[in-house]
Amino acid sequence: MNLGKNISAVINRACKSVVRIYTSSSVGAGVIVSNDTLIITNAHVIEGGPRIKVETIGGKILNAFLVVKMRRYDIAFLFIKNSQLGSEVTVIKLPDKISYSVGDTVFAIGHPQGLNHTVNRGIISAVDRKIVSGNFPFKIYGLNWIQTDTPVSRGHSGGPLINEHGEMVGLNTWIANSTDGKGINFSLPSRYFKPWISYLKDYLNPKKRINRLLCPVCGSFSSLERYYCTFCGAKLNFDIRRKELLHKLKRTPLV
């Protein structure tokens, strides 16, 4: 088997799941993670305004709806109606089990400097990297990160970090902003957001009944009877938010 051609096919397929995200004052990447067009990106990518648009690899520009934003992880989930998409898009592959090691080859896909679907290659420099001090964003403390030397810039934010099988092992999130931090970049491992994807697929399906609530602050789950998150104490209004969102999407919610 020609390994070069195989990698090229893997990357080309992954690129079809990557969208460009616009607000009034920011731009970044996002990834289609489910067949009903759920998109994951960084929360900081959509901070620029309430109106969010996405552009597919085929150049189609569509309106997106915010489902949930979790600043604790710098993650946001968006939704667009899949009937609006063409056949040029695909859903990113997620690994069945988390297995990666230092030295593994990885690829970051994004839109640096407005150059859509740029692919950069690097290696994993460290796994489960914990940040305990330094001039880093507050949000990264207490999390385990994938550290890579993959050349990335702001346009890669919210895009996928994929392995040689085309599986999304992480979400490109931040870079070390210092002169001696070149080649130090961090992605949020997919083990954090895979459970949320599964939950939100049911959440957006009016035929499904949900039996727990997702906390938009800490990402934990609580029972429907709870008014506040069991873990962080944040107010839970996800059931109300669901009815409003389904109505906006012209989907009839369950009563």
Question: Gist?
Answer:
With 255 residues, the protein is α+β, with helices and mostly antiparallel strands. The protein is 15% helix and 31% strand.
What layout of secondary structure does this protein have?
Layout lengths: L2 H13 L2 E5 L4 E6 L5 E4 L10 E4 L5 E10 L4 E5 L25 E6 L7 E13 L13 E5 L11 E3 L5 E8 L9 E5 H14 L8 E3 L6 E3 L14 H11 L7
Antiparallel strand pairs: 1-2, 1-4, 2-3, 3-6, 4-5, 5-6, 7-8, 7-10, 8-9, 9-12, 10-11, 11-12, 13-14
What proportion strand?
25-35%
Helix content: 10-25%
End-to-end Cα distance, whole Å, is: 54 Å
- How many domains is the backbone divided into? 3
Integer-rounded radius of gyration: 18 Å
In spatial order, strands of the major sheet run 1-2-3-6-5-4
Please give the largest β-sheet.
6 strands, antiparallel, barrel
| Gross CATH architecture of the largest domain | Beta Barrel
CATH homologous superfamily label of the largest domain? Trypsin-like serine proteases
CATH topology of the largest domain: Thrombin, subunit H
Overall geometric form: globular
